[in-house]
Structure formats: structure tokens, C-alpha cells
Sequence to fold (73 residues):
Amino acid sequence: MEGANMRFQVGKFTCELARDDDGRLQMRWIPEPPKYLNRAERRQYQAGRAAFLESLKDHDQPLYRPVEGSTAR
Fold:
């Protein structure tokens, strides 16, 4: 995963969030994706994700780029 990235602990798992060269959000769980997150783990994930997204505001590129030919705004 290239570009901005962040790792944080979610229970016994590690979540890595990154933005690829096209500005898309990428997520990877280590050692494997959890099958279930309890309430405390969901709060950890949400706090980590919010911190990552907040850190992207400092970068020049927008988080999402419109797809060529798209009419959505």
C-alpha cells in the first residue's frame, strides 16, 4: 500500500488503512480479517478510521476522485 497509511490495534487484530495512488481507501487486517468485532473493538476501529480520515485532510489530494464520465458530484 503506497501513499498515506496508518496502522492501529483493534482487539487482537491490527488494521492497516491506506490510500492508493488513485485516492481509493485500502484496508488490510493482520493476521486475517476478523469474523466479528465486539462493541469495544468496533469503537477502536471507528476511532482509528476517523483518525486516519482526519489525517488525510492535511494532504493536497482529495480522498475521492470522480470517475471519468461520471455525472455524480
The first strand starts at residue 5 and ends at 10. The mean pLDDT is 83. Strands lie at 5-10, 13-19, 25-30. Residues 5-56 form one domain.
